[in-house]
Q: What sequence folds into this?
């Protein structure tokens, strides 16, 4: 669906994250949302009410359609979070739990 | 916009003389207009635009009995009646519009922290229930253990709670949408941008309402315009002292459903959002700001009530103004000087929606408010001062 444009002058450092346990190679400076798109993953969550699939839409922190779990924390905005080596990303399945 | 064109959607051109015009398209006006449909041939609902104060969109959405009527027993009984009518209203709206307003009446709690709060609230409830006009209903003081059986993860700071089986919640936004959907399907004319600036009664008893879109004429009118009722009331000879009260609400992100027993300060709605509220401030009409100290207080109390909420993020906050007559009780009255003009003001437009639709509307249609509503007239504000 999405194709990276040439990165220009300097080659960015490669970064490896996992998405639902599967390794995904991306680049330093990517947002998690961009990394997901580059890795061919368009739907990163299912909505809280109807369970419909959703993916990043606005890429600028407004639409909240790119929520994912990051390193065990639910409902993180993928487009507002930069990838880090070893980051564990999970699809957000419906509403988060309250751990009582 | 001076070019001659076909009338736009908000044009008052060629409006008929309505049987009833309801001034105010929020939950109070909408419930009454909805309930009038069987007995009025034609109904208009006049509303303001997007900058209206709109308590109907900023409220907490409780269908709530246990805190109502201290100082006026009849208000408690009136509220109890509405909680009993609510299942019928919800079923009717579902059938007519396909909208489930998410009514849940599984009981509700007022959480109490510490002996002082418990003793003060207990005395208050005993006093409320002992008043003339109160219809007795079941209520209990629960200890921490009993309350914790109703509230998963209840914090140890909640040492007691007042419980009644009658309390509950609804989704107030879905409720408003259901009323308006019913209007569309049953020919009630909803007229936005028709804020009323003047009211005149003609020799034949009919009314002419001045609006920015031109005049609207009706044989009967119902003033249900929230905090504007103070000004509009004067136009029909009713002196209704209003006192807005600000409430701030903090909204937490959606989670899986955890809380089935709403509290007066904390509830989870049908789609998973959490609302934290019940602040009360005298702040005039300043509904465009929230204040950090107040939101911090709300957040602190929510986290003490259910400590696991510490991990759940706040996503929104807002202020809204409660519609309150000076003493906080509802006002229902037909004008003596302008017969055919009725005024309806209350704080609890959600809780009372069922009674407004199913009980009050037929009274208005019949043209007289029965003696049981005398408690709610403005006469209580104007006892002789000599």
A:
């Amino acid at each position: 669906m999405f194709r990276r444009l040439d990165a220009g002058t300097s080659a960015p450092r490669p970064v490896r994250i996992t998405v639902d346990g599967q390794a995904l190679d991306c680049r330093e400076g990517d947002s998690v949302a961009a990394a997901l798109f580059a890795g061919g993953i368009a739907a990163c969550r299912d909505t809280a009410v109807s369970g419909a699939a959703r993916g990043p839409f606005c890429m600028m922190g407004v639409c909240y359609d790119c929520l994912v779990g990051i390193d065990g924390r639910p409902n993180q905005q993928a487009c507002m979070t930069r990838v880090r080596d070893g980051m564990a990303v999970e699809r957000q399945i419906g509403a988060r739990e309250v751990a009582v | 916009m001076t070019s001659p064109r076909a009338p736009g959607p908000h044009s008052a051109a060629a409006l008929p003389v309505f049987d009833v015009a309801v001034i105010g398209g929020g939950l109070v006006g909408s419930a009454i207009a909805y309930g009038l449909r069987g007995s009025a041939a034609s109904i208009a609902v006049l509303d303001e635009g997007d900058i209206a104060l709109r308590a109907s969109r900023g409220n907490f959405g409780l269908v709530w009995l246990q805190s109502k009527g201290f100082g006026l027993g009849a208000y408690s009984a009136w509220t109890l009646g509405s909680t009993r009518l609510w299942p019928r209203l919800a079923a009717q709206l579902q059938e007519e519009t396909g909208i489930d307003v998410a009514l849940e009446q599984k009981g509700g709690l007022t959480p109490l922290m510490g002996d002082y709060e418990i003793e003060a609230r207990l005395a208050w409830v005993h006093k409320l229930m002992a008043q003339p006009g109160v219809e007795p209903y079941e209520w209990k003081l629960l200890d921490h253990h009993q309350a914790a059986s109703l509230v998963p993860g209840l914090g140890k700071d909640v040492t007691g709670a007042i419980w009644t089986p009658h309390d509950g919640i609804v989704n107030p936004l879905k409720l408003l949408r259901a009323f308006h959907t019913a209007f569309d399907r049953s020919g009630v004319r909803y007229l936005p941008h028709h804020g009323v600036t003047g009211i005149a009664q003609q020799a034949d008893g009919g009314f002419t309402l001045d609006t920015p879109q031109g005049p609207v004429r009706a044989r009967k009118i119902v003033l249900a315009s929230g905090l504007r009722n103070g000004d509009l009331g004067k136009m029909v000879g009713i002196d209704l002292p209003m006192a807005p009260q600000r409430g701030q609400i903090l909204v937490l992100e959606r989670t899986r459903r955890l809380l089935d027993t709403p509290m007066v300060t904390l509830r989870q709605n049908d789609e998973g959002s959490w609302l934290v509220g019940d602040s009360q401030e005298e702040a005039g009409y300043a509904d465009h700001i929230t204040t950090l100290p107040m939101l911090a207080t709300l957040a602190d109390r929510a986290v003490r009530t259910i400590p696991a909420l510490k991990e759940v993020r706040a996503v929104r906050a807002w202020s809204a103004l409660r519609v309150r007559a000076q003493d906080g009780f509802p006002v229902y009255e037909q004008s003596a000087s302008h017969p055919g003009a009725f005024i309806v003001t209350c704080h609890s437009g959600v809780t009372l929606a069922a009674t407004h639709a199913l009980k009050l509307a037929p009274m208005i249609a019949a043209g007289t408010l029965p003696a049981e509503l005398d408690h709610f007239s403005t006469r209580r504000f104007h006892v002789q001062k000599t």
